[in-house]
Queue: 2 jobs
Job 1
Amino acid sequence: MRLSWRRSSRIEDRFEAWITQQHQQRVLAGETTPTGPCPDDGFLLELAHKSKSIRLSDPRIDHAANCPKCMSRLLELRGKSRSHRRRMALATAITACALTAVLVVVARFAMEKNTSTTNTAVVARTVNLWDSGTVRGEQPGQLESVSLPAALVRVTIILPRHSASGLYLVAITRDQNGSGVVAEGTATSVANGEQQQVTANLDLRKAATGPYFLSTTHEQDQAAYYYPLQIR
Ligand SMILES: [Zn+2]
């Protein structure tokens, strides 16, 4: 590939130099004697485009190089061919730029999509309150440090010992009085052996990190139990 390109390029260079020289000489001397008849326009077009089907030994080349009429036509066609090539190069450059722009947009879109996918990814967490106190209104005693991420959380809460089955309201609140609700969800408890557990979806994406309370309220009991928790 590379070799043949080099070779044809060298032939083209030589031909070009030669035809230019012929032309200049004729213009300068003002006397040229073309041999044979003028070739058709198709041949001149092929010649102008440096078609590989034309051999340098072709006598029509010699004619064209010495005939003012053919030469001017040839130069005219060569000019067109050159400007066509320039236009093609320009079009290629524009296409490349457009393609780059499209790729940038696609990449950006993919990145944004990826980011939003990350944000909407649900994080599963389990909070075990099994051994925490259930004395109403009292701060639970020893509680393992509970933390949830500032994300969409699918939290499974293992309810404290002796908890009733049924529908629960699960909430994350700023304080222990139930005000400043950050997120809440309802869930029906599911028995797992002795334990009752509820699973609720909580949107904590906009929650600032810091201390909060996790509260559980049974539909019939209506009393809320608060457990300290950190959002990280
Ligand atoms: Zn001619």
Job 2
Amino acid sequence: MKKAVEPALQPDSVEFKAVDREQWLFMYGQMCKIRAFEENANELYLSAKMPGLTHLYIGEEAIAVGVCEALRQDDYITSTHRGHGHCLAKGASVNLMFAELLGKEAGYCRGKGGSMHIADQDTGNLGANAIVGGSAGIATGAALSIKMQGADRVAVCFFGEGALGQGLLYEVMNMAQLWQLPIIYVCENNLYNEYTHYTEAMAGSLTGRAKAFGIHAEEIDGQDVRIVYQTMQRLVERARRGDGPAFLLCHTYRYHGHHVGDINREYYRSKEEEAHWRTDRDPLKLLSEWLIAEELAEAAMFEQIKKEAQAEVKAGV
Ligand SMILES: Cc1ncc(C[n+]2csc(CCOP(=O)(O)OP(=O)(O)O)c2C)c(N)n1
């Protein structure tokens, strides 16, 4: 059994306090909304109400929220098979997402796409993608269109570390660096490609893959929304300035199985490992504990925010 990756970076409280407390509370609410959405999606699957299956994002919420909070509505994202969090963080409607998951005409793709194909052009979401690494070309093409139009938008390409095995990613990273495109490749390393620890499938350094093209690369704790948000702000700023692409490796963990049907996971990871991430590395807990310790919020506020998110999600279902 492989050891969990521990984050290398320590938060700098002084820098984080420069961000408005309301904005941190908003991000907490966004993470609650994603978690509640996923818990309800799981319930719909388990009660056989949802056609097909879905891949839950629970545990990884800080990445979608920290990244999208640093973007404007007219910036682009592309997403993955584990994409509900990205859609919601970019501003998608809970109602239309559930309609899509449940195969209804009212859904984002008229109920024909389901969980892995949600796109929402109004919020700059160019689409989830069931093909691992499949959106790298779409996101890089969007960045090329931004550059050709002389606009100051940016494109973000979300993908799991499993996509680092896809050749397309290297073709487009090469072009992005050559042409100095405004794109940020956000790699969510949740340790497993389906049921295989990533160290059993990947040689060498993960950030080294981007650095080989001369792409600016950083590696952060993806459980801490404060670090994700502030790092992304810097990377977005440099992309808007015309300083070219960046690669952001975020260390994270999915609490649930690869998909909703992956219930017995002990043959590939231990219960102790899962408990460690849930207890010590939970993104909602990390943010609320810090806000309480800094006397920026009280415990009761988080309960209230959680309840409001759960109510919005329940109404959507
Ligand atoms: C091109 C391609 N190969 C294989 C698959 C089957 N598959 C679906 S998800 C997955 C693992 C993805 O791992 P990662 O990219 O790290 O994302 P995670 O599921 O961990 O979020 C695989 C191999 C696929 N969908 N597309």
